[in-house]
């Protein structure tokens, strides 16, 4: 077992990884009101758990409002980003498999 110290809390950068094993990675993503989320599609599936704040999660097919307690699944390679951040956002992010594990397979 691993207790993920600091998971869900702001770190030194917008994204702070807390755990990496071959099948998954876990990190905290923090965006302030007015920030631009410049992330690109990932080669791994993602689950977002919104811990605090409010924004909208955009994909080409749908945009949804998210706030504390919202859980969203984004499949690998789907373009997505947080937009219209109205309250500082703290999100727990789970990648399966670990982030960048499939990066070579996408080329």
TrEMBL record:
Pfam families: Cupin_2
Name of the protein in its database record: Mannose-6-phosphate isomerase-like protein (Cupin superfamily)
Cleavable signal peptide: none
Record domain Cupin type-2: where: 29-95
Gene3D superfamilies: Jelly Rolls
Top-level taxon of origin: Bacteria
